[in-house]
Design goal:
By secondary structure, the chain is α+β, with helices and mostly antiparallel strands. The chain has a single domain, classed as Up-down Bundle (Outer membrane efflux proteins (OEP)). The protein is about 60% helix and about 10% strand. The chain is elongated and about 140 Å long.
C-alpha cells in the first residue's frame, strides 16, 4: 500500500498529461493544477495581465494537440523516444502558439522602435481652388467675391524626427524586455513539449508491457484450465476447481482486451501530441529501462534550476519591462523635442516650380491633464508590484518543484527495486503452487491466489518503472533542462 501511495505522488506531477480512463492504464488529460511544471508563464508577456495557468484553463490544453503532418501509409512507422521528442518540437500546437506569440511581441517592439526613428515621406499635390475674399476679410469696392478658379502643383519630401522623448525611449526599453520575456517563455515551452512527449511515450511503453503481461497470464490461465479439465475428467480434481479455472481464464481474456484498448488509446494520445495522423500506424522502438541518475544531488539540482529555468528568466524580464513602464508613464510630464522639415517645389506647373521648404522645431510640455498621468503611473506601479510578487513566488516554486520531483524520484526508484524482487518471488510462488496442485497436495484455490499475487506484482513493477521514468523527466523539467539534458537523463536514448 505504501508503494502505491508513493506512486500516486509521482503520477500527480504528470497529472495534466495523464488522462481519464481505467486507473490501471491511465489516459491523457490536462490538469489545471501544477502549472509551474506543465505550463510556461506567460505565453504572451505583452498582455496587460499575466495568467500563469491560462493554457490549462482555456478549454483544450494546446500541449495535448498538434498540427498532423505526413501522408498515411499502410506500413507501421518505427518511433524512438528521441524521434518522438523531435516531432513534438516541430509540430506540437502549444509550442507553435508560443512561437507565434513571440512574433507578435517582436512586432510590438519594432513598432516602439519606429517611434524613435525618422519618418520620411514624399507628397505630390495637384490643387484646384477658388477662394472667398470676403471670408478672409477683403471688402474693397469693386473687389470680386472670390479669386476665381486657379490651380497649382506642390511636391515635397518631408521629415519628422523625435529629437528627445524620455517617454518613447522608456517604452521601447519596456517592449524590448517584454520581447526577451517572450523568447524565454518560448524556450520554456520547448521543455514543456519534451516533458509532455516523454510522459506520453512512457505511458504507451507501460501499456505495451501490460498487454504482454496480460498475454502471458492468459496463456497460463488456459494451460491451467486445460489441466483442471483433464483432472476433472479423470475424477482426480473436484468440479469447483474446474469452475475456478474457467473463471480465471475468462478474467484473463477480459484483462487482455482492456489492456489492448488502453494501449491503442495511449498511442492515439501520443500521436496527437507529436503530430502523427490519426490513421497512421506506428510502433515504439524504445522500452522502459531502469537507468539511475548519477552525479546529481538535490542541492545541485535546485541551484541549476534557479540558474536555468527559462520561466524564471522570463519573469525577471517581465519585472524589467514593468519598471520601464513606470518610468515611461512618469516621463509623460517631461518636455519632448521634435523636428519637422520639408523641401520641394511649388508652382502653377512643373516648368514654373520654385523651391519651397519648411524647418520647424517644437517643444511639447503637458500643463494640465486632469490627473491622467497620475492614473497611468499608479496603474504602472500596480503592474510592477504584481510582476515582482510573481517573480518572488516563482523562485520559491522552482525550489518546491525540484524538491517534489526529487522526493518522487527517490520513492519511485525504491519502488522499482522492491517491485522487481516481489515479482520474482511471486513468480516462484506461482510455480510452486502449480507443482503442489499437479501433485494433488493442494486445491486450485491456492493456484488462483498465487496467480493473482503475480498479476499484482507484474502491475506494480510496470507502474513503478513508469513512475520512475516520469519522475526523471519531471525532475529535468523542474530543473529547466528537459530538452538540453534529455539524453543524460535517459541513458543515451
Amino acid at each position: 500500500m505504501k508503494t502505491f501511495v508513493k506512486l500516486a505522488i509521482v503520477i500527480s506531477t504528470a497529472a495534466w498529461i495523464i488522462g481519464a480512463g481505467e486507473p490501471a492504464f491511465g489516459q491523457l488529460q490536462p490538469d489545471p493544477a501544477g502549472y509551474s511544471i506543465s505550463t510556461p508563464r506567460p505565453i504572451n508577456p505583452a498582455a496587460s495581465t499575466t495568467n500563469p495557468s491560462a493554457l490549462a484553463t482555456q478549454g483544450q490544453n494546446p500541449y495535448l494537440g498538434s498540427t498532423p503532418v505526413g501522408t498515411v501509409t499502410d506500413q507501421e512507422i518505427p518511433l524512438s523516444l528521441q524521434q518522438a521528442v523531435e516531432r513534438g518540437l516541430r509540430y506540437n500546437l502549444g509550442l507553435i502558439e508560443s512561437s507565434q506569440a513571440t512574433a507578435e511581441v517582436r512586432a510590438q517592439r519594432l513598432r516602439a522602435l519606429a517611434a524613435l526613428l525618422p519618418d520620411l515621406s514624399v507628397k505630390g499635390e495637384q490643387a484646384l481652388e477658388d477662394l472667398s475674399l470676403k471670408e478672409i476679410g477683403f471688402k474693397l469696392p469693386g473687389l470680386p467675391a472670390t479669386t476665381g478658379p486657379f490651380s497649382y502643383q506642390d511636391t515635397r519630401v518631408s521629415l519628422a524626427q523625435s529629437v528627445y522623448s524620455q517617454e518613447l525611449h522608456d517604452r521601447y526599453k519596456a517592449q524590448k524586455s517584454t520581447e526577451q520575456a517572450s523568447a524565454f517563455s518560448t524556450r520554456d515551452a520547448r521543455d514543456v513539449v519534451v516533458y509532455a512527449v516523454g510522459v506520453a511515450y512512457f505511458q504507451v511503453v507501460a501499456s505495451a508491457a501490460r498487454v504482454e503481461t496480460a498475454k502471458a497470464q492468459l496463456a497460463s490461465a488456459r494451460e491451467l484450465d486445460q489441466q483442471t479439465a483433464d483432472q476433472l475428467k479423470h475424477e482426480v480434481s473436484p468440479e469447483i476447481d474446474a469452475i475456478r479455472a474457467q473463471v480465471e481464464r475468462q478474467s484473463a481474456e477480459q484483462r487482455l482486451i482492456n489492456a489492448r484498448d488502453a494501449f491503442e488509446k495511449d498511442k492515439l494520445a501520443l500521436g496527437r501530441i507529436i503530430g502523427i495522423p490519426i490513421d497512421q500506424r506506428f510502433t515504439l522502438t524504445d522500452t522502459a529501462q531502469y537507468h539511475p541518475l548519477a552525479d546529481l544531488t538535490q542541492q545541485t539540482a535546485t541551484t541549476d534550476a534557479l540558474e536555468t529555468r527559462s520561466d524564471l528568466r522570463s519573469a525577471e524580464a517581465n519585472v524589467r519591462a514593468a519598471e520601464y513602464g513606470v518610468r515611461a508613464e512618469k516621463a509623460q510630464r517631461l518636455p519632448a523635442f521634435s523636428l519637422h522639415a520639408n523641401y520641394g517645389g511649388a508652382g502653377t506647373n512643373v516648368g514654373n516650380f520654385n523651391s519651397v521648404y519648411t524647418v520647424a522645431g517644437s517643444v511639447s510640455l503637458p500643463i494640465y491633464t486632469g490627473g491622467r498621468i497620475r492614473a497611468d503611473v499608479d496603474e504602472a506601479r500596480a503592474t510592477l508590484a504584481r510582476r515582482q510578487a510573481e517573480y518572488e513566488d516563482l523562485k520559491g516554486r522552482v525550489a518546491y518543484d525540484v524538491r517534489v520531483a526529487w522526493l518522487d524520484l527517490e520513492a519511485s526508484e525504491s519502488g522499482v527495486k522492491v517491485a522487481e524482487k516481489n515479482r520474482a518471488l511471486a513468480d516462484r510462488a506461482l510455480a510452486q503452487s502449480r507443482d503442489r496442485y499437479s501433485n494433488g497436495v493442494t486445491n486450485y484455490l491456492e493456484v488462483v491466489e498465487a496467480q493473482e499475487a503475480l498479476t499484482a506484482a507484474e502491475e506494480n513493477y510496470i507502474q513503478t518503472l513508469y513512475s520512475f521514468n516520469v519522475s526523471k523527466i519531471a525532475l529535468a523539467r523542474a530543473m529547466g533542462v528537459a530538452e538540453r539534458c534529455f539524453s543524460d537523463f535517459f541513458g543515451g536514448k
